[in-house]
Amino acid sequence: MVTQETMNSIGYELINMKKLDDAILVFRLNTEDFPQSWNAWDSYAEAYMNKGDKETAIKYYQKSLDLNPGNENGKKMLEQLRGESKQ
Question: How do residues 3-50 score in pLDDT, each as one tens digit?
Fold first, then answer.
Protein backbone atom coordinates (compact mmCIF):
# COMPACT_ATOMS: atom_id res chain seq x y z
CA MET A 1 0.00 0.00 0.00
CA VAL A 2 1.25 3.46 -0.88
CA THR A 3 1.16 5.87 2.03
CA GLN A 4 -0.23 9.36 2.10
CA GLU A 5 3.28 10.71 2.63
CA THR A 6 4.60 8.87 -0.44
CA MET A 7 1.80 10.24 -2.60
CA ASN A 8 2.46 13.73 -1.26
CA SER A 9 6.15 13.42 -2.09
CA ILE A 10 5.36 12.28 -5.62
CA GLY A 11 2.98 15.22 -6.04
CA TYR A 12 5.62 17.71 -4.94
CA GLU A 13 8.20 16.15 -7.24
CA LEU A 14 5.75 16.69 -10.10
CA ILE A 15 5.21 20.32 -9.03
CA ASN A 16 8.97 20.84 -9.05
CA MET A 17 9.08 19.38 -12.57
CA LYS A 18 6.32 21.86 -13.59
CA LYS A 19 3.96 18.95 -14.31
CA LEU A 20 1.06 20.59 -12.53
CA ASP A 21 -1.75 18.57 -14.12
CA ASP A 22 -0.01 15.35 -13.09
CA ALA A 23 0.57 16.72 -9.58
CA ILE A 24 -3.09 17.66 -9.29
CA LEU A 25 -4.07 14.12 -10.27
CA VAL A 26 -1.76 12.61 -7.63
CA PHE A 27 -3.04 14.97 -4.94
CA ARG A 28 -6.67 14.29 -5.95
CA LEU A 29 -6.08 10.57 -5.56
CA ASN A 30 -4.48 11.25 -2.18
CA THR A 31 -7.56 13.15 -0.99
CA GLU A 32 -9.77 10.32 -2.23
CA ASP A 33 -7.69 7.73 -0.36
CA PHE A 34 -7.26 9.91 2.75
CA PRO A 35 -10.30 12.24 2.82
CA GLN A 36 -9.78 13.19 6.47
CA SER A 37 -6.16 14.25 5.95
CA TRP A 38 -5.85 18.01 6.23
CA ASN A 39 -2.35 17.77 4.78
CA ALA A 40 -3.57 16.01 1.64
CA TRP A 41 -6.08 18.83 1.05
CA ASP A 42 -3.43 21.46 1.79
CA SER A 43 -1.13 19.96 -0.84
CA TYR A 44 -3.99 19.64 -3.33
CA ALA A 45 -4.73 23.33 -2.81
CA GLU A 46 -1.08 24.24 -3.33
CA ALA A 47 -1.01 22.49 -6.70
CA TYR A 48 -4.05 24.48 -7.85
CA MET A 49 -2.48 27.68 -6.53
CA ASN A 50 0.65 26.96 -8.55
CA LYS A 51 -1.50 26.36 -11.61
CA GLY A 52 -3.15 29.75 -11.11
CA ASP A 53 -6.60 28.41 -10.20
CA LYS A 54 -7.18 30.69 -7.24
CA GLU A 55 -10.84 29.75 -6.69
CA THR A 56 -10.14 26.02 -6.42
CA ALA A 57 -7.04 26.63 -4.27
CA ILE A 58 -9.15 28.66 -1.82
CA LYS A 59 -11.78 25.91 -1.73
CA TYR A 60 -9.25 23.22 -0.85
CA TYR A 61 -7.26 25.33 1.60
CA GLN A 62 -10.57 25.96 3.37
CA LYS A 63 -11.27 22.20 3.41
CA SER A 64 -7.83 21.68 4.97
CA LEU A 65 -8.61 24.27 7.64
CA ASP A 66 -12.01 22.70 8.32
CA LEU A 67 -10.18 19.44 9.11
CA ASN A 68 -7.37 21.15 11.06
CA PRO A 69 -8.13 24.69 12.28
CA GLY A 70 -4.54 24.91 13.51
CA ASN A 71 -3.09 24.62 9.99
CA GLU A 72 -1.02 27.80 9.94
CA ASN A 73 0.14 27.29 6.34
CA GLY A 74 -3.47 27.02 5.19
CA LYS A 75 -4.39 30.21 7.04
CA LYS A 76 -1.45 32.06 5.52
CA MET A 77 -2.19 30.85 2.00
CA LEU A 78 -5.87 31.77 2.29
CA GLU A 79 -4.91 35.27 3.40
CA GLN A 80 -2.61 35.62 0.40
CA LEU A 81 -5.12 34.20 -2.06
CA ARG A 82 -7.90 36.40 -0.75
CA GLY A 83 -5.63 39.45 -0.71
CA GLU A 84 -5.98 39.86 3.01
CA SER A 85 -3.21 41.20 5.16
CA LYS A 86 -2.61 41.21 8.88
CA GLN A 87 -2.41 44.77 10.08
Answer: 999 999 999 999 999 999 999 999 999 999 999 999 999 999 999 999
Q: What are phi and psi of 49, to 5 degrees?
A: -60, -45
Give which of 50, 53, 28, 51 is closest to 41, Cα–Cα: 28
Closest by Cα among 22, 19, 64 to 43? 64
- Write the burial class of residue 22 (CB in 10 Å: 0-12 exposed, 13-18 middle, 19+ buried): middle
The pLDDT score that the predictor gives to residue 87 is: 40
Decide if 47 contacts 11 (C-beta within 8 A).
Answer: yes
